[in-house]
Design brief:
Blueprint lengths: L8 E4 L1 H7 L3 E4 L5 E2 L5 E2 L3 E2 L8 E2 L7 E6 L5 E3 L3 E2 L5 E2 L3 E5 L2 E4 L13 E6 L2 E4 L3 E2 L5 E2 L3 E2 L10 E2 L9 E3 L4 E7 L9 E4 L4 E2 L2 E3 L4 E5 L6 E4 L15 E8 L11 E5 L2 E5 L14 E6 L14 H9 L1 E7 L7 E13 L10 E3 L5 E2 L5 E2 L3 E3 L10 E3 L32 E4 L2 E7 L7 E4 L5 E5 L6
Antiparallel strand pairs: 1-2, 3-4, 5-6, 7-8, 9-10, 11-12, 13-14, 15-16, 17-18, 19-32, 20-31, 21-22, 21-25, 23-24, 24-31, 25-30, 26-29, 26-31, 27-28, 27-30, 33-34, 35-36, 37-38, 39-40
């Protein structure tokens, strides 16, 4: 019957046979277990390492978010609630109700926005997260956008490839998940040793997952296929998650369980905090937030710009499979939260930048008409400078190559808005010393005059 020692009875199920290739379903699971093979704990129960039976969580019905606890038996608590079973109010909070615990004596003047505040209130004023602002912590600071309760900083810094610091949440992108559920096969995932040599990866048609079995002590990794790689800028601040199961107990995670490489950078993170032991024989969902905040445990610590650069050209995503000789690791339901420019559920973490005159595009990712890359080798990060083609020609924005106007060599060059022709160097343009969007010209004595003002200005 294959009931993991929790039942001696099973029945034949045609539907199960068609779905998994094995038609025997266990009945009468003991030890508070359930499932086709009595392989998991019932809701509201958990299994300690090394034990067969599942123990009750005893999560408080008012103070906990659900009846389920983690592998250590600790429940997830509502705001203001604490304790292993979420049955106590935190200091300064009372009483315990179905809504959790409220801060003692909290006044109406301290109703803070939970997305931007830390939950504390001092002398009637909300304590805001690092990048949130306002009396109620209800808005982002300057040069930040997308107030989000899941963001430990409150808001994300504007990126815009370094060309602008002003942005808002875009309204033209929707949520899109890049996934591997292994329903039909390995979906392009491969096995690779830590040294880089290939390793055997197998697909289970019964469990619809993939696994790698170790025969040596060298760590082996699951290596992600191309759809998880490339430009993953739209996953910044979102999550990578997967279900992982290890068939051996008593093993601890390493600092290099998840590896990201891209843009000449490399970061790693452990499955669990130091000192924790990986669950044995039980599938657990591991989630990693893709940004530079210290709570995310990526090492080495990158700044915002570096983490964006890494995601902008992701060349490798590795997830550790084995921990020691004769261990086997299983992975399933890999999900990378991203976005796409189509209608649907809004993705407010995607930015829309306010670009200077030299740049264009939603992310200031291209040079405006009449400008070119100063350092094409830096790609989208390169600054844009005016074209300097002889005869007023227009140049290629990426290479700087002039492709029109060259036949007019000797004529006066035509400079784009915001720049003027230098009388000393007739074939070059200089930036106007005026405000944004304003043009200028050089007088007979070489004096620069801001004489091309926008409507309503003088």
């Amino acid at each position: 019957c294959n009931c993991n020692g929790m039942s001696r009875q099973c029945v034949f199920d045609w539907n199960l046979l068609r779905e998994t290739g094995n038609g025997y379903r266990c009945v009468g699971c003991r030890g508070n277990t359930e499932g086709v093979h009595c392989e998991r704990c019932r809701e509201g129960f958990f299994r300690r390492r090394g034990e067969e039976c599942c123990l009750p969580c005893h999560c408080h019905p008012w103070g906990s978010l659900s009846a389920q606890c983690d592998s250590d038996g600790r429940c997830s608590c509502k705001p203001g609630v604490m304790g292993r079973r979420c049955d106590q109010c935190q200091p300064g909070f009372e009483p315990l109700t179905e809504a959790g615990c409220q801060r003692s004596g909290q006044s109406l003047q301290c109703e803070c926005d939970p997305a931007g505040s830390t939950g504390d209130c001092h002398s009637g004023r909300c304590v805001c997260k690092a990048s949130a602002d306002g009396e109620r912590c209800h808005r982002c600071k300057r040069n930040f956008y997308n107030l989000d309760a899941r963001n430990p900083m409150g808001c994300s810094p504007c990126f815009c490839y370094g060309h602008s610091a002003t942005c808002v949440s875009a309204d033209n992108h929707s949520v899109y998940n890049i996934t591997s559920t292994f329903q039909q096969g390995a979906e392009g995932w491969r096995g690779v040793y830590e040294s880089g040599s290939p390793a055997q990866l197998q697909w289970s048609p019964r469990h619809r997952d993939v696994f790698i079995a170790a025969r040596t002590s060298e760590p082996i990794y699951f290596m992600a296929p191309g759809k998880f790689l490339g430009n993953q800028q739209l996953s910044y601040g979102q999550t990578l998650s997967f279900d992982y199961r290890l068939d051996r107990g008593g093993l601890q995670p390493s600092p290099h369980d998840v590896v990201l490489e891209g843009g000449g950078l490399r970061v790693t993170a452990p499955f669990l905090p130091q000192g924790k032991v990986l669950p044995c024989g039980v599938s657990h969902t591991y989630t990693f937030r893709l940004d530079e905040h210290p709570s995310n445990k990526w090492s080495p610590r990158l700044n915002h710009f570096e983490f964006r650069r890494l995601l902008g050209n992701l060349t490798a995503l590795w997830i550790r499979a084995t921990f020691g000789e004769y261990s086997t690791g299983y992975i399933d339901n890999v999900t990378l939260v991203s976005a796409q420019p189509v209608p649907g559920v809004p993705a407010p973490w995607v930015e829309h930048c306010e670009c200077p005159a030299a740049y264009g595009g939603q992310f200031c990712e291209r040079c405006a008409h009449g400008y070119r890359r100063d350092s094409p080798g830096q790609g989208l990060f390169s600054i844009c400078v005016p074209c300097s083609c002889q005869g007023g020609g227009i140049c290629d924005p990426d290479t700087g190559e002039c492709y029109s106007g060259d036949e007019n060599v000797g004529n006066i060059v035509s400079c784009p808005v915001g720049f003027y022709r230098d009388p000393q160097q007739p074939q070059s343009c200089r930036a106007c010393p005026c405000g944004p969007g304003q043009g200028c010209s050089a007088g007979p004595g070489g004096q620069v005059i801001c004489d091309h003002c926008p409507p309503g200005a003088a």
